[in-house]
Amino acid sequence: MSTKRIPVNKYATPFLLSWFIWSCGYAGLLKYLGANLSIAVIDSLVFNGALLLCAILQVVVLQYYFPKQNKTSYVLVVSLIVSTIVTAFSTFIMSQFPEQQFTIEAQQDVYISYTHIAIPLRFSLAFLLAACIAMINILFFTLQEEKSTVQRKIEAEQLAREAELFQLRSQLQPHFLFNSLNSISALAGSKPEEARRMIQQLSDFLRGTIKKDNSQLITLEEEIKHLSLYLDIEKVRFGHRLQTNIDCPDDCYKLKIPSLLLQPVLENAIKFGLYDTLEEVSIDIRARYDEPYLKVEITNPFDKDTQPAKGTGFGLQAVSRRLYLLYARTDLLQTSSEQHIFKTVITIPQ
After folding, report:
1. Secondary structure tally for the chain: helices H, strands E
2. How do 256-258 and 293-301 pair as beta strands?
C-alpha cells in the first residue's frame, strides 16, 4: 500500500491545461479526418472526459495499491482495460445522437466514413494515453518510495551515529569522574579548601559536558576554556608535577571543532606521562590553521621501558572513531613517538 499522495494543488493547473490542449488537438484531428466541427467538439468532450475520469481513478488506485513487481504487465493490463472502457463508453454516447443533428444529407458518406475511423482511433489513443498516465504514476510513486527509503536510511544512520557517539563519551566520563572523586576524598581530610575548590571545578566541568551535544561544533576558544577546567582538576590531583602549555594563535580561536574532542587525548597524555613517574611533566598543546584544516598537536613525554610504544589506549581509539563518524575519514588522527616524546595530531576539516 502506498502512503504517498500526489500534491493535487501543485499539479492540477498544468494537468488541466495540458488536457484542454490535448482535447482541442483531438477535435482538430477529427475535423481533419472528415467530421464536421460539431461532431468533433462533442466527440472530443465525451471521449476525453471519460479518459480524464479514468486517469483520476488510476491515480487514486495507485495511492492505495502500488505494484511492487510486474509493473510492465500492470501498465499493459490497465491500458487495455481503460482503452476498452473509454472506447465503448464514448462510442455508446455518440451513437445516441441522431445523425441529422450533425450532418446534412450531402454529408452522409463523410459521417459514415468518420464512424468507421473513430472507434479504432479512440481505442488507439486511449491505449497510448492510459499507458503514459500509468507509467507517469508508477514513476512518481517509485521515486517517492525511493526518496522515503533513502530518508529513513539516513535517519537510521544518524540515530546510530548519535547513539555510538554518546556511548563513546559515556565510557570516558566515569573513568575521569572516579579519579576526581578519589582525589577529592584524599584531599577532604588534609586539605579541605582544595577539596571544595576541586568539587566546584568538577561541578562546572560536568555541567559544561552535559550541555554539549556529541555532534555539535563549537569554536576552539570554547573547547580550550572547557579543557582548562579539566586541566585545573587534574592539577589538583598531580600538583606541581603536571605542567601544561597551550599555544593557540588568534586566527585559530574562531575555528570549529567537535565539542569535548580534546579531553580524551589529554587524559591519555596524562596517563602515559605522569602515572609512572614522580618528576615534573610538561604537556604541550599547539593549534595551527593549515587551510582548510585546523590542526591540534598534543605532545607528552613517556617512558619506553614501562609504556607501550604506540600509546593508543581507549581514549585515542574513541577519538578516532568519533572523527570517522562525523567526517567519514580515517586519517584525521595521527600518532607518532620519537625520543621519549609521544605526539598526537588531530586534523579538523573547516
Report:
1. 8, 7
2. unpaired
Give per-residue pLDDT as tens, 222-274. 899 888 888 888 888 788 889 999 999 999 999 999 888 898 888 888 888 88
57 falls in which pLDDT band (50, 70, 90)? confident
Interior angle at CA 13, CA 8 and CA 18, nearest 5: 115
pLDDT of residue 5 exceeding 70: no
Burial profile 278-311: b = 16 or more Cβ within 10 angstroms, e = fewer? eeebebbbbbeeeeeebbbbbbbbbeeeebeeeb
Give residue for cell 575548590: 197
Q: Which three cell numbers stand for residue 265?
A: 587525548
Query: What is the set of domains in the chain, with CATH numbers?
Result: 8-153 (no CATH), 191-349 (3.30.565.10)
Residue with cell 497510448: 128
What count of other Cβ atoms lies within 10 Å of the Cβ of residue 166? 13
Give per-residue pLDDT as tens, 125-134. Answer: 888 888 887 7
